Amino acid sequence: MKPHNYAVIFLPLVILLTNFVVLMFSTGFYESEFEKLGVYGIVEKERADAEVKNLHQYFLGKEETLHTTLFSAKERIHLLEVRALLRKGMFLWISLVVVFALLLLLHPNLYRVFFWGANATLVLILLSLFILPLFSQAFLNMHLIFFEDDSWQLEPGKDALLTLFPEQFFRDFFVRWMINSALASIAIASLTLLLRKFKNKKA
After folding, report:
1. Which of 52, 133, 138, 143 has the lowest CB atom count within 10 Å?
2. Measuring CA to CA, which residue among 20, 143, 142 is closest to residue 93?
3. What own/partner pairs with CB < 8 Å and gap ≥ 24 does 194-201 have?
């Protein structure tokens, strides 16, 4: 396979990671989830929203210290590990976008890249739906793989992180992430087809 043909492989990764990052920092999603899961009935809305803002600034590197009194020392350790993991993910995302852009410049057939890349993304999303019935186990395995210590083993009703972000929050995040990625893929594939038909008609 010629190097530029890897653009078809990179596009699904770019679509998925871009939608992950956008949703990760979407305050509207957090507000709707907090309303749905009854978080605002436990933690005052103004404070819950402020904690999300603080976490976003902490994860993005705007703040090197987490300014809050809501989380315990154990929770802070876990958030530090989460931040390290997210920063690696952000670096991977930016790197993939840059490499994908370079591959596009070399590829002679952009239609093939965007149409087949978008369709490959849809296939991956459909396959990922099989995770949903086993989400709890997959969520546990993810923690066992990515976190070395036991700081993530928190107690419901005691630790504020589980009050703000119960497992259902992450399940809903996963579903919304897949839906947004699917919609983006459909839009890309549809736009590619329309542009090709318009180009052929014009020719």
Report:
1. 133
2. 20
3. 195/111, 196/111
Q: Which residues of the chain have pLDDT under 70?
A: 1-4, 202-203
Exposure letters 78-110 (e unless 16+ CB within 10 A, then b): bbebbbeebeeebeebeebeeebeebeeebeee
**Contact by Cβ (8 Å): 116, 30:** no
CA gap 179, 75 in Å, rounded: 30
Q: Are 177 and 103 in contact (CB under 8 A)?
A: no
Q: Are 43 and 143 in contact (CB under 8 A)?
A: no
Token pair recorded at residue 109: 């057939």
Structure token digits, residue 56: 């976003």
Q: Do 11 and 181 contact (CB within 8 A), yes or no?
A: no
